[in-house]
Every structure is written in structure tokens, then in C-alpha cells.
Amino acid sequence: xxxxxxxxxxxxxxxxxxxxxxxxxxxxxxxxxxxxxxxxxxxxxxxxxxxxxxxxxxxxxxxxxxxxxxxxxxxxxxxxxxxxxxxxxxxxxxxxxxxxxxxxxxxxxxxxxxxxxxxxxxxxxxxxxxxxxxxxxxxxxxxxxxxxxxxxxxxxxxxxxxxxxxxxxxxxxxxxxxxxxxxxxxxxxxxxxxxxxxxxxxxxxxxxxxxxxxxxxxxxxxxxxxxxxxxxxxxxxxxxxxxxxxxxxxxxxxxxxxxxxxxxxxxxxxxxxxxxxxxxxxxxxxxxxxxxxxxxxxxxxxxxxxxxxxxxxxxxxxxxxxxxxxxxxxxxxxxxxxxxxxxxxxxxxxxxxxxxxxxxxxxxxxxxxxxxxxxxxxxxxxxxxxxxxxxxxxxxxxxxxxxxxxxxxxxxxxxxxxxxxxxxxxxxxxxxxxxxxxxxxxx
Length: 443
Hints:
63% of the residues lie in helices and 8% in strands. The chain has eleven helices and four strands. It has a four-stranded antiparallel sheet. β3 (292-300) and β4 form a beta hairpin. α4 (64-83) runs antiparallel to α6 (123-188), α6 (123-188) packs antiparallel against α9 and α9 runs antiparallel to α10 (323-387).
């Protein structure tokens, strides 16, 4: 009864409906479990809308892919628990009954208990490898959380940017509508020919197409963000605040690079995997020695003579000697070593490229910002002049087209700069690179 009381029991686990979260206003997250300090100090309050930090926190807490990785971590920890368990002893019972009664003879029996000594000797290496593997899975989960935070920031920025573009293109379409109507009427009245009217007609059609394309991109971006956050398709996305931005200095980058292998989760995960392989290799080397089992027994033969003794089983290391396993584990260790060193080298080169790209994009953004300001001023002046009849519509359309093209170029560079900054922050893993405004309370 005591043995049965300690046994595991089965309980059903019904499948869910997979509908996702339909309302984020009343959601809560465990702030203490956030993987980055900047998230642990942020007040999560979706009732007033989601800023870029709220979106990152919600992604960490509710992303479906992260849920699967946490399940894998549970499996790895269970395997580490299993690796530390002692092997169960084996009990043998044997009884030989007489086919017919013979005076002076009785039923013989043999009772014994034995233990796998080799399994006990390999327990420490097996346990060390399993715990290192569990650490590796845990660090891989942390790295995936970092990556998910970066994806959430990029998705937030993209949705906010596309919404702003949609609003700007809708305004452009509305501004071109009177010109389109004016030109079409003049064409109908015979005051314009088709070749002279086509620029105005094409300008309105182009603005309408841009607006339609932008709307489709926005639908895709909102879909991707909802999926990343584990939200239902009908869940509202009330995004507030500015997109994520960071401009690390050269000194900050170098400081973060100095201790990168001791801080970034994916590199730490590779180190943990290497340590697990080291333990596995040590276990394979230990396993080359003869496998040993030891046991004791007590028995009686048919004449009733009692005896007891010991049982020792040894595997003779003649042919195998675990040489194949040792070679496999040695080659695997070399592969993990090269993988780690290659990852560090790739990371350093990626960071150097991103730093150079950001420097170029910062300069390009500043130039485009000044250029857009001049063209915006020219667009406002041209609109006022056209409304007063002081400017012909072809010139007005040309000025508007140039201003719109500059605005779109600026938005593209701004978005690219933001994405590069997010990627750099994720590669460096240094939250000090984030501006203080990214974690400030929502206004």
C-alpha cells in the first residue's frame, strides 16, 4: 500500500480551443519574471493602451512559441531529475518444484538481489551532463525571449509607421481629389487634352494605389503583431507612444563587446552545451572499463541444504571497449567548440556592420529630415498659391510629388534605422543602450 501510494497517477488534460486573448485591457504579467531589467521596472498597464515596452512584456508572457520553449525546459529539467536517480536493485526469485514426492527431498529455491555498479559509477557524469543540458535549454529560452522582445519592438514600430503612412497617404489622396475633379471636368468640357490631363489623373491614381498597398501592408503587420502576442484576430491593437529607438556610442558598444561571451544567453547556452558534452565524453571514457553487477543470494537445493553467496557479473573488454562511443563524443565536442567560436566571430562582425550601418543611417536621416522640412514648406506654399490661382496645377502636382517622395524616403530610413538599432541592442544584450524615454510612464 505504501508503494502504491507513492506512484504517479494519470489525470486528463483537455485540448484548448486556440482562440487567443480577445481583450488586453485587463491582462496582467508577472513583472518579476521579465528577462531584462528595463522590463522589470516598467509599469504594465494595458488599460490605457500598449506602448512599445508593454508590447515587449506581453510578447514575453504570452507568445505561443515561447510557451513551447518553456515546455521544453520542463522536459529538460525532468530529464535532469531522472539522470540523478539511483538505479533500482534487481530481485530474483527462483523455485523448483518436484514432479512427484520423493522422501527426503523438498522444493528448492533461490532468492537474490543485485545492483548495477557501472550505472552507479556513471551517475555523476550522467547527472552533470543532464544538468548542463537543462541549463542550455534555459539559456536558449532566455535568448529566445530576447529575440522575441526585438521582434515585438520591430512589429510595434512597423504598425505605428504604417498607420502614420496610411494617414499621410489618405491626406495626400484627399488633397489631390479636387485637382483630379478639376482636370476631369476640364477634359470633359474640352479644355484639356488627354496627354495634358494624364499627369493629374495618374497622380491621383498613384496616391490611391499607394494608400491601398499601405493598407494591405498594415493588415499584414497587425496580423503578425497579434500572432506574436498570442491575441485573437479580433483583439484591438491600441498602440501608443513612440517607437523604440537607441543610439549607442562607440564606447558603449566596446564595453558591451568586452564581456559579450559572459553575458549573452545564446553564447552561454553554447557554453553549457559544451560542458554537457564534456561530461558525456567523461562518461564514455569511464564506460570503457568492464561493466560490473554485484549481488547476494540465498538458496536451498532439493535436499534441503542451505547456502548463500555473492554474484559478480563482469563484461570482458575484448572487442568493443566503448571505443566507438568515445570517438563519437570526442568528435561531437570538437564540433561544439568550433560552433561556439564561429558564433562569437560572426556576432562580432555583425555588431561591427550594424554599428557602421547605424552611423550611415543617422547621417542620412538628418539630411532627409532637413530636406523634408524644406519640401513640406514648399508644399504648403504651393497649395496656398494654387488655391489662390497663382500657380498652375502641373507645377503644384510636381511639388507635391517631390514632397511625398521625400517623406516616404525619410520614413523608410527612419524605420531601417530603428530596426538596426533594435538588432544591435539584441546582439549586444546591453539594456543601458536604451533611451530613458523607452521605459518612461505613458502620458
